[in-house]
Amino acid sequence: MPQATFMKQNAFSLRRFAGLLLFTVLAFTSLGFSAQAEPDLELGKKLYKQNCASCHKLDKKLVGPALAGVSQRRSEQWLIQWIRNNAALRASGDAEANAIFAEYGGSVMTNFPSLSDDDIRSIIAYTDAGDAPAAGAVPAAGAAASAAPVEDNSLVTLIILASFLTLFVVLLLRIRNTLKQVNGEQSTNLRQDLDGFTKLLIRNKRFMTFATVVLVLWFLQALYSYLLGIGVEQNYQPHQPIAFSHKVHAGQNKVDCNYCHSSARHSKHSGIPSANVCMNCHMYIDGSEITDSITGQLKYGGERSPEIEKIYEAIGWDAEKRTYTEGYEEKPIKWIRIHNLPDLAYFNHAQHVTAGGVECQTCHGPVETMDEVYQYSELTMGWCINCHRETEVKTESNGYYAEMHDKLKAKYQGEKITVDKIGGLECGKCHY
Ligand code: HEC
Ligand code: HEC
Ligand code: HEC
Ligand code: HEC
Ligand code: HEC
Ligand code: HEC
Q1: Beta carbons within 10 angstroms of residue 388's beta carbon
Q2: CATH number for the domain including 63?
Q3: What are phi and psi of 86, to 5 degrees?
Q4: Does one domain contain both 106 and 250?
Q5: Of 1, 33, 134, 392, whose CB count within 10 A is highest?
Q6: Could you give the CA distance from residue 251 to residue 268 in angstroms, rounded to a whole number?
Q7: Is the Cβ atom of 250 under 6 angstroms away from ligand 3?
Q8: How far is it, in rounded angstroms, from Cα 50 to Cα 245?
Q9: Residue with CA nearest ligand 4 atom 19
Q10: 339, part of any domain
Q11: Could you give the residue ranges of the DSSP H alpha helices within 138-204?
């Protein structure tokens, strides 16, 4: 076989091989964008500590059963349904769900509508794996743990993989060059090789079609999620400047919502309490006596809680001298607002809570179980209107509107008087 032809074929197959490699890299990368479904142990652990640890232990019964190895007793689908909404699963007549509910004497487990399938898979992965002792010091539960950013390991893996493959391509190009030299052809430097390689890829129709399709798909997916997200912030759950927990306050310590959100009953806004309200209790509770719900030990080893310190810092309370610092200018705590209707819409809390008798939880979900508040409802126009179509006006014991309600009763003789019948669908009622 003539030398030249052999070289040509050889070089050609090398190019082909290198091209194939790049295909693979790209395919992997695009997969990485769409399929981040690997259960994430760190995330699972964090979510478990935040949401489940108050009632479950891995190895022992607490309020609920021990969760280690639960994936062996139950199917993944069942677990997802149970954890997201165990009440609904029980109501659907599911035998396993009703059996375990009965076994635990009808103790009700919280629903977690905001956990995604992947979140739940991560929690289950954590209950299967447990605490690996090598994972270093476990930070104190709560504040520190929830503030730590969750690392995205899959991206790191992809980058490493891509760099290895690139190195491999470079290596192949060098081998090809050496082969050329052996065959007495003119050798080229790496730069020329890479240029040649890129040109080859650009000229390769199949490759370009593939690359274009990947790019277009990726763009469409990004656009789609962006459009879906516009205006709808359901499940929005920012980290707040102080690790204030509704679960601790409204749940465990049963502080009434109105103690802190007092204006909800009589004004448009519900409002966020000022640091003064916090000080009613935190002048005495500085965190040194707080015990960790999991280990049962003093959470800060008898020191003040750094989170409660932030309240003192905001209001100028000198915890050593137990006085307010004179002439201190209060720095309001910058709570991040979660619920926010656009300016064009008018919503009034008092009208719903006091006149309508609607519970906070109907719109805000089980706030008393949330360590961090998230937006439970869509807050879209459709959401307001649906409820107005379905909800009956409280006509009993509502002196405020007695006269109007009597007229309505006469008009709708025996029919349900829903909010739409009192004008709840009129544009002008909700729009300025
Ligand atoms: C308020 C207490 C409470 C919280 C919080 C809670 N659970 Fe439960 N869980 C229970 C109880 C009680 C049961 C037993 C069934 C029943 O009585 O409803 C249970 C049962 C379960 C079961 C079924 C166990 C089995 O053996 O089949 C799973 C799985 C489970 N919980 C997972 C979770 C996960 C995951 C979380 C956190 C996201 C969580 N639970 C948070 C109280 C709780
Ligand atoms: C001890 C005081 C306190 C109590 C009791 C309390 N809250 Fe709050 N609430 C706060 C503070 C502080 C914030 C702002 C920080 C945050 O979002 O967690 C807040 C935020 C909220 C938000 C989100 C506001 C936004 O930014 O859109 C809602 C909704 C809410 N509370 C509802 C409730 C409900 C419902 C209850 C009763 C079950 C309740 N709260 C009990 C202090 C309290
Ligand atoms: C009615 C009393 C009361 C009010 C009002 C109150 N708290 Fe608390 N707070 C408590 C109790 C009780 C605990 C839990 C102590 C324990 O776990 O032993 C607590 C715990 C905390 C913790 C957890 C500390 C830690 O490091 O674990 C933070 C943070 C906190 N409160 C912030 C606030 C803020 C901010 C406000 C005002 C918006 C506020 N609290 C209002 C009673 C109150
Ligand atoms: C009918 C549904 C509904 C009910 C019931 C309801 N809320 Fe709201 N809440 C909303 C909407 C909608 C917003 C957003 C308002 C805005 O952006 O103007 C909101 C906002 C809030 C905020 C943020 C601050 C503000 O005033 O905008 C807090 C805090 C809050 N609600 C607490 C409560 C509490 C506490 C209760 C019970 C006493 C309650 N809500 C009952 C729908 C409701
Ligand atoms: C959970 C059910 C529910 C949701 C969700 C709800 N509403 Fe209402 N709304 C009511 C009830 C009940 C009344 C009647 C109150 C009364 O008796 O005056 C009412 C009354 C009103 C009224 C007064 C109507 C009239 O003719 O007097 C306005 C305005 C209003 N709602 C605006 C809104 C807006 C804006 C939203 C969405 C951001 C919303 N509502 C979401 C239940 C709801
Ligand atoms: C019960 C309250 C309510 C009534 C009645 C109502 N709207 Fe709305 N509307 C809203 C709320 C809340 C929003 C904001 C929704 C969002 O941000 O997604 C909104 C948003 C809108 C928008 C902005 C586009 C959008 O989807 O964000 C338009 C336009 C609008 N409404 C028109 C109307 C017209 C016309 C009527 C009468 C037929 C009407 N609305 C009746 C509550 C209401």
Answers
A1: 20
A2: 1.10.760.10
A3: -70, -30
A4: no
A5: 33
A6: 25
A7: no
A8: 10
A9: 339
A10: no
A11: 143-147, 153-182, 190-203
Q: Mind listing the pLDDT tens digit for each residue in 202-237?
A: 888 888 889 899 999 888 887 776 665 555 667 788
Name which residue sits closest to atom 37 of ligand 5, judged by CA.
384
Determine the Cα–Cα distance for residues 147 and 43; give it in Å rounded to an integer.
Answer: 12
One domain, residues 14 and 163: yes
**DSSP 8-class letter at 415:** S
Tokens of 412: 């709708």
Of 54, 10, 36, the C-alpha closest to 225 is 36
> Is the model's pLDDT at 121 over the cut of 80?
yes
Give the closest residue to 212 by CA, choosing from 222, 202, 227: 202
Which structural domain range is residue 73 located in?
A: 41-151
Residues 160 and 26 in one domain: yes
Ligand 6 contact, 425 CB (< 6 A)? yes
Mean pLDDT of 55-82: 87
Q: Is the pTM of the predicted complex or chain greater than 0.85?
A: no
11 pLDDT above the threshold of 80: no
- What is the DSSP annotation of 39-101? --HHHHHHHHHHHTTTT--SSS-SSS---TTHHHHS-HHHHHHHHH-HHHHHHTT-HHHHHHH
